[in-house]
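Problem: given the chain below (401 residues), write out its structure.
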Amino acid sequence: MKLKTTAGLIASLLGAALIAAPAQAQDARIALLGGISGPIAAMAPPMIAASELAVKQVNEQGGIGNGGTLRHVVGDSACNPQNATDAATKAVNIDRVIGIVGPHCSGAVLAAANSVAVPAGVLMITPSGTSPQITAIDDKDLVFRTVPSDDYQGRALARTIKERGMAKVAVAYLNNDYGKGLAESFKAEFEALGGEIAGYSAHEDGKASYRSDLAQLARGGADTLVIFDYGDGTGLTLLRQALENNFFTNYVGADGMKSDAVIRELGADNLETFFTSAPVGEASESLENFRAAFSAAGGNPDAIFTTTAYDAAFLMALAIEKAGGDRAKLSESLRAVASAPGEPILPGEWAKAKQLIAEGKDIDYKGAAGDHEFNQAGDVAGNYAFFKVSGDTYEAIADMK
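Solution.
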């Protein structure tokens, strides 16, 4: 009897102490899943760094909720469906994240979303997954992107090079979701404009030689080779072997080919007729804020997908703050903080956003990569430019419409 009475007294005292204790700060954890290894290995580090800048700014300006910290884990999706599934599974089941920024590559996005994120009810924002197939995911409004679909990029690239006098082309595309999606949209638009596709073929990743593939493509008489691949991987091999054998005069790639590895390995002197498309931030105060902050942090603001990677992480943080850390409310909260009407929030303005959210006021994030007004599928419009090689970097020479 005495034992029970003592136990009851202890329980009562503990309960009173818990009631009297102040509310504990609630941290939030997100995953940054990127192609750290694999065909975009050179592109991934600046993208991860840009997302980490957003996390750093959040924590320096008050953190999440009532004194909580925004924490992050980094995972390697390797631009590979299986690796992406494994990395997302670890992030959700072991690290207990409530949101995922990434993965970086389209096939990885599709796999991680369908196998892990959507079934688990975890919000995903990819900064560079561009395949049109992402639009069609039955995602329960959980998959978003801060970069436009390749359906737009492929068609805009077709219009751009046709206007520049490249009327007869051959197309080589990597046989994955990214390469196929770009090739199909490019081909449809280019032919609709009266252009001629004199060769069109898929190739597999990782072969030592593509000379026979290139020779076959060149037999159609095109003076321009369009490569939908990655400049850190097979795309570099294709371009090198095409140049070595003088198969074509002009070479054109999309965003995956806009890699420093191409310039470093082949040399600017050999790339005078090599061009790429890539998304660019709309000229704005938002873009200038990001560029200044990322440069101060030691990053290269001209690196591809850094603006979209920053925006994806900052939007994720805003959604978490708006939702009060409730995973079930993240999707609707993301749409709320990204859409008009509302007080404009620029990159880095976390303290301002946090205060307005606490006051119950609407905000509208104006991103470094543009104004992310998500459509029903979680897609955004965007801006692309046409680049040439200039010294050890890429120079924008035309806007793409």
